[in-house]
Amino acid sequence: MASNKGKQPAPKLDQGPDDQLLFDDKELDRIFNQEASLVQREQEVVRVLAAFKLNPYDILDLDHMPGANAQIELSDSTKRKNLDETLQDARMLVLREVGLPRDAPDDHELLRPPKMRDPDLRERVRRKAKEIIIDDELRKRRLQKMTMIAEGAEAKRQEDALAERKRKAEEKERWEETREDRVHDWRNFNKKKKKTRKGPEVLG
């Protein structure tokens, strides 16, 4: 067995005030919680973005290379009609913001530089269309959630009604099962009552 003689203990590292602050438990907890919160927020943003279908025209971006998903969406006449209506509504809202009627031409002086600065009309319409699509999706999801809540409440009501009917049926069954015992007890009670009333006759 090797001897420990001659070996010096490992030098202790001095922890200055900065080191103590770095390894403070409360500070570490705060940092970890903050990091976890940031990760959760980032995951929530990713989840929300993934929940929405992008504007097919935005994906297709007619001035650049086409996207397969956009082409699939646009091949559906119903979806294309809905999208066209959304873009028309978006354009109308953008025109209203600058004080123009919905039938104002794209080359109107208020829609061209220097009257309209960046972003240009096309970009503003695309942004507004995306807002409309997201608002519609959120409204649809809220309606679905309310429907699910209502359906859950109705299911709970039916479940409670079924439980109540079952409870009453069990009570009726127990009542019927104890009928003979109640009749027997009632007869015994009447017999005792008659005996008490009969008693010895008193001579006058």
TrEMBL record:
Region Disordered, residue ranges: 1-20, 152-204
Stretches with biased composition (Basic and acidic residues): 153-188
Protein name: Chaperone regulator
Species the sequence originates in: Rhodotorula diobovata
